[in-house]
């Protein structure tokens, strides 16, 4: 069985209001006590698998859970154990269940592994089933704690589970509650929280991007939705860590990369699907800009500190970094951005009724041809006496750096290394130029003392050098790409 659910954390000032909203004649309150098991070296949790025994009323239920195709889906297998407290975990039933057996075998190797108690949960759940548009939705407010022998952690969260009907209706319903109760999306499970507590950690490592492969047999629309789902798997766990104010610098780096990839996918491949909203690219661009600003300020602090002799300039940079971090913490869980996560999730999971006449390769070729055309146009507009004229060229190279390895994977082209290297050299020069340009602009907008003009002059000289490298590398790349006709 696959369950479809979304979990949210609740802003502290809105918790009582949400509890009152659930406190009606149709709501039910139950106590849920659960025990979570794993091997001593936590092989299950390492694969995103949870095995628990939970008392629901007078009955014990053993449940196996595993990650699904998105953060909305999870595999779930339930096994009734009776009213007597189980003395051990029962693995035998999974031998005859193909999917459960495969999940456990992938994680454990064999099903005869010794499992031990890792942590327990004690939750009071208030739940209510509502009918909204074309969906039946179960709302569950969980209040309680997770505990090990030595530590405990509070739980206060709300879940929405689609019992039947339309996923779109469920997401619309969730958004109404997001606005009213200041909810923020949290893709971390109780099992993840418990495993962190057992290991005396506060946050899981940052989620990194994984390799993506197009399905050449499917349409462009299908593949774009698949790509967006893949990128959300990268983004949302890192966003959750930032929202909880537990993020390491790597969480911020990975969230920024995921946002950048999402923005490029929506912008460059927008013609692949009629389901793309015209506002998404602008929303993602504005959101990722805050990550990029913070990254740039921190880079300047690390590289220019020795050159900035005026204390006021350095102090201004420190204040910008603090403000940037505070603003980012608020933005990631803002109502507008939570709605955007839900919109993207909906797009990634939905399917189009319209049959596309052209195959995936046709769309990929058109996209690459259009990108090359835009790159050529931006190159022709460059004037080395006006360094700002390189900004558009740097942008086009960044777009192509993202799309080139993805789109060329659809072709049966050999020896792409020379094309990739030529593009890599051009994009690296563009990236260095962009960083130097942004640093110079920041200093020009500051109230510089005479001592700081040296830093600005150094930056300008470096810009000019990278501008020439950028032009040469771009020209070489445009000459090298002979495979696309």
Automatic annotation (TrEMBL):
GO MF entries: inorganic triphosphate phosphatase activity; metal ion binding
UniProt domain CYTH: residue ranges: 1-199
Species whose genome carries this gene: Acinetobacter calcoaceticus
InterPro entries linked: CYTH-like_dom_sf (IPR033469), CYTH_domain (IPR023577), YgiF (IPR039013)
Any one Pfam family match given in the protein's UniProt record, by short name: CYTH
Name recorded for this polypeptide: Inorganic triphosphatase YgiF
């Amino acid at each position: 069985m696959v369950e479809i659910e979304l979990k949210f954390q609740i802003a502290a000032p809105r918790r009582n209001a949400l509890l009152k909203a659930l406190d009606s004649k149709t709501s039910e309150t139950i106590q849920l006590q659960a025990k979570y098991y794993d091997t001593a070296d936590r092989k299950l949790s390492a694969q995103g698998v949870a095995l628990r025994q939970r008392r629901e009323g007078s009955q014990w239920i053993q449940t196996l859970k595993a990650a699904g195709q998105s953060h909305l889906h999870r595999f779930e297998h339930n096994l009734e154990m009776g009213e007597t407290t189980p003395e051990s975990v029962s693995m035998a039933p999974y031998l005859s269940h193909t999917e459960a057996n495969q999940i456990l075998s992938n994680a454990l190797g064999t099903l005869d592994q010794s499992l031990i108690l890792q942590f327990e949960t004690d939750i009071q759940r208030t739940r209510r089933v509502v009918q909204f548009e074309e969906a039946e939705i179960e709302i569950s407010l969980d209040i309680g704690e997770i505990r090990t022998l030595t530590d405990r952690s509070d739980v206060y969260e709300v879940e929405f589970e689609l019992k039947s009907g339309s996923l779109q209706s469920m997401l619309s319903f969730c958004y109404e509650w997001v606005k009213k109760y200041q909810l923020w999306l949290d893709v971390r499970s109780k099992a993840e929280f418990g495993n962190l507590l057992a290991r005396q950690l506060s946050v899981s490592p940052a989620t990194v991007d994984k390799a993506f492969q197009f399905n050449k047999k499917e349409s462009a629309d299908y593949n774009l939705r698949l790509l967006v789902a893949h990128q959300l798997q990268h983004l949302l766990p890192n966003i959750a860590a930032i929202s909880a104010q537990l993020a390491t610098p790597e969480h911020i780096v990975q969230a920024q990369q995921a946002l950048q990839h999402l923005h490029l996918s929506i912008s460059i491949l927008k013609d692949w699907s009629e389901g793309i909203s015209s506002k998404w690219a602008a929303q993602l661009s504005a959101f990722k800009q805050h990550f990029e600003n913070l990254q740039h300020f921190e880079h300047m602090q690390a590289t220019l500190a020795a050159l900035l002799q005026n204390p006021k300039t350095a102090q201004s940079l420190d204040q910008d970094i603090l403000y940037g971090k505070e603003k980012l913490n608020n933005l990631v869980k803002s109502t507008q951005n939570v709605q955007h996560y839900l919109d993207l999730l909906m797009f990634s999971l939905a399917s189009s009724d319209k049959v596309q006449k052209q195959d995936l390769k046709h769309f990929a070729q058109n996209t690459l041809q259009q990108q090359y055309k835009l790159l050529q146009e931006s190159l022709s507009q460059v004037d080395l006496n006006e360094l700002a004229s390189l900004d558009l060229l740097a942008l086009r190279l960044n777009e192509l750096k993202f799309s080139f390895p993805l789109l060329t994977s659809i072709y049966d082209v050999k020896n792409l290394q020379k094309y990739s290297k030529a593009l890599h050299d051009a994009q690296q020069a563009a990236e260095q130029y962009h960083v130097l340009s942004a640093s110079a602009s920041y200093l020009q907008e500051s109230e510089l003392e005479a001592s700081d003009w040296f830093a600005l002059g150094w930056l300008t000289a470096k810009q000019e050098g990278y501008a020439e490298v950028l032009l040469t590398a771009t020209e070489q790349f445009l000459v090298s790409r002979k495979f696309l006709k």
